[in-house]
Amino acid sequence: MLDLADELRRWCAEGREFAVATVVAVTGSAPRQPGAALAVDTDGTVIGSVSGGCVEGAVYELCLAALASGESVLERFGYSDEDAFAVGLTCGGVLDVLITPVRADAPDRPVLAAALATAARGGTAALARVAAGPAHLLGRALLVGPDGGVTGTLGGTEALDRVAGLEAAALLDVGRTGTVELGEGPGEGVAGTAGDLAREAGASARDRASEATGPAASAATGPRTAAGAAATGGGDRDVEGGGRGTGSAAAERSAGAGGPGGAGSRCGEPVTLLVESVVPAPRMIVFGAVDFAAALVRAGKFLGYHVTVCDARPVFATSRRFPGADEVVVEWPHRYLDSQELDRRAVLCVLTHDAKFDVPLLERALRLPVAYVGAMGSRRTHEARLDRLREAGVSERELGRLRSPIGLDLGARTPEETALSIAAEIVAVRRGGTGAPLTGARTPIHHDHRTAWAAGPRSGPRARL
After folding, report:
1. pLDDT tens-place string over residues 112-126
2. HEC profile of the chain
3. Entry pTM
4. How far apart are the first and last CA of the chain?
5. Could you give the angle at the alpha carbon of 226 between the alpha carbons of 225 and 232, nearest 5°?
6. Where residue 447 falls among pLDDT bands split at 50, 70, 90?
7. Over the stretch 330-357, which tens digit does the pLDDT of each residue have?
8. How far is 460 from 426, CA to CA, in rounded Å?
9. Which of 58, 50, 100, 65 is nearest to 80 (CA)?
10. What is the Cα 423 distance to its own chain's centre?
11. How far, CA to CA in Å, does 413 sit from each of 298, 303, 409, 430?
12. What span, in angstroms and rounded, lies between the C-alpha atoms of 290 and 311?
C-alpha cells in the first residue's frame, strides 16, 4: 500500500475511511508484484491497481465489503479457461491479495497513517502486516523505523511483535518487500529470507540480520514461494534449498512458544507477514555536464532515481542547463565521489570521456559496491582508458565491472536515444535481462537476478492459506 502513499496520506488526513487491497504473493506470470495496491473509499473512489485490470472489478467489490464488515480478508485469484468472462488472470498466474479496511475506529489506522506519511516524504521504514494466520490477527500492522524502533502491535503476543520487528528490520536493511513466515510451534523458526537478503546486502545488513536470525543468516532460501515465484521469471523454477532458521530470533520464538507468551499464535497456526519496505530513492550520479547528460537526467528521473549531475566546470554545471536534476554539483568528479556514501542501488554514469576526469573517478568507482558503473566513449577511447586504469593499479576483476562503451546496442545517435540506451542497460543489469528482443524468444520475461541492490520485491516462504 505504500506505493499509494501520497494519495492515501491525504485520505487519512481528511478522515476518510477506505479499504486497501495489497498484493501479498504471486505465482507464475502476473502483471503486478507484491506490495502493489488498490484502494477504495466509502464514496467509491478508486486509486491504484493490483493486476493491471484482470481482477480489479472483483477486488473493488471486496474492498467495499471489507469496509462494511470491518474485517480483513485474504483472497486468491487464479486463471480460469472455462469461462472467458470469469474473474481471473488471463496471463495464467495466481495472485494472493490482502484486503484491509482502514475505518475511523481501526486500531491500526494510526500505524498505517504514520507509514504512509513516512513513505510520502521519502523516509525509511518497513510496514509489517499479518497476511495469513489466525483470523483475529489478519491485517494487523506494525511499523519499523530505520533505528529498529517498533510502533504498533500485531495484536498477538509481545514475542510475536518482537520477532516481527526483527524480521522487518532485516528486510528494511536491504530495501526489500516480501513475505516472512513465523513458526507455528516450539523449535520452529523463520525461513531463511532475512538471512539470504543480508548475505546479499553486505556487512551492514549482515549485522542487522544476525540480530534477527543469528546463524539462520547462512540458511538457504526456503521452499518455493508464492511471492517469490514472480521474481523467478514466470514462476517456473523452484528456489533451491529449504529448512528454517534456528538463530537468535528463532530461539526467542522457541523459548516463548512453549508458554503462553509464544511467538506463534496460541492456536498453533503459523503467521505470515507481508513486509513493505520504503527507502529513499536510489542514487544516479551523472558525471559530465554534457548534452547527453541532460537527456540521461530525464531518463533517470523517469526510472525513479535521485539524480545528481557533477562536473568540475562551473560554466557547464548549472541548474539552468539541468532543470530536471535533483542536484547539480561543481566539483572534480573523484573528489565528489569520495565525499558520498552510496548503497548497492546506486548507479554511476561517466559521460566526460576525458582521461583527466575519468581515470581518477573510475579508479574509485570500480572499487565501490554500487550497482552499475558505465563510461561513455568510443571503443578506441575505451581501450586507452583501460590501459590507464591498469597503470593506476585497477585489477582485471574490477575492470570487469565497467560497462563501456556505455549502454545497449540500439543504434542510438541522438542524446535522447543514447539516454534510452543507457537506461535500458541499467534496467537489464538490475533485473537480469539480456537486452535481446522478446519476440521469438522462449526465455522468461521476468528474470531471477538476485542483485543485493535491487529494491524490487523479494519474498520469504509462501503464506499458508
Report:
1. 999 999 999 888 999
2. CHHHHHHHHHHHHCCCCEEEEEEEEEECCCCCCCCCEEEEECCCCEEECCCCCCCHHHHHHHHHHHHHHCCCEEEEECCCCCCCCCCCCCCCCEEEEEEEEECCCCCCHHHHHHHHHHHHCCCCEEEEEEEECCHHHCCCEEEECCCCCEEEECCCCHHHHHHHHHHHHHHHHCCCCEEEEECCCCCCCCECHHHHHHHHHCHHHHHHHHHHHHHHHHCCCCCCCHHHHHCCCCCCCCCCCCCECCCHHHHHHHHHHCCCCCCCCCCCCCEEEEEEEECCCCEEEEECCCHHHHHHHHHHHHCCCEEEEEECCCCCCCCCCCCCCCEEEECCHHHHHHCCCCCCCCEEEECCCCHHHHHHHHHHHCCCCCCEEEECCCHHHHHHHHHHHHHCCCCHHHHCCEECCCCCCCCCCCHHHHHHHHHHHHHHHHHCCCCCCCCCCCCCCCCCCCCCCCCCCCCCCCCCC
3. 0.59
4. 21
5. 70
6. low
7. 999 999 999 999 988 899 999 998 889 9
8. 26
9. 58
10. 18
11. 17, 21, 11, 24
12. 9
24: closest CA among 180, 187, 155?
180
β-strands 18-27, 73-77: how paired?
unpaired
Contact (Cβ atoms closer than 8 angstroms) between residue 439 and residue 315: no
**pLDDT per position as a tens digit, 25-65:** 877 665 667 888 899 999 999 999 887 666 888 899 999 99
111: left (phi over 0), alpha (psi -120 to 50) or beta: alpha
Give the three cell numbers for residue 203: 556487512
Strands 372-375 and 402-403: parallel
Least confident of 233-247, 274-288, 379-393: 233-247
How far is Cα 204 from Cα 364, in angstroms, rounded to an integer? 21
Q: Which three cell numbers stand for residue 341?
A: 556514501
Cα angle, residue 188 at apex, residues 96 and 202 outer, rounded to 5°: 75
> Cell numbers of 130, please?
499479518
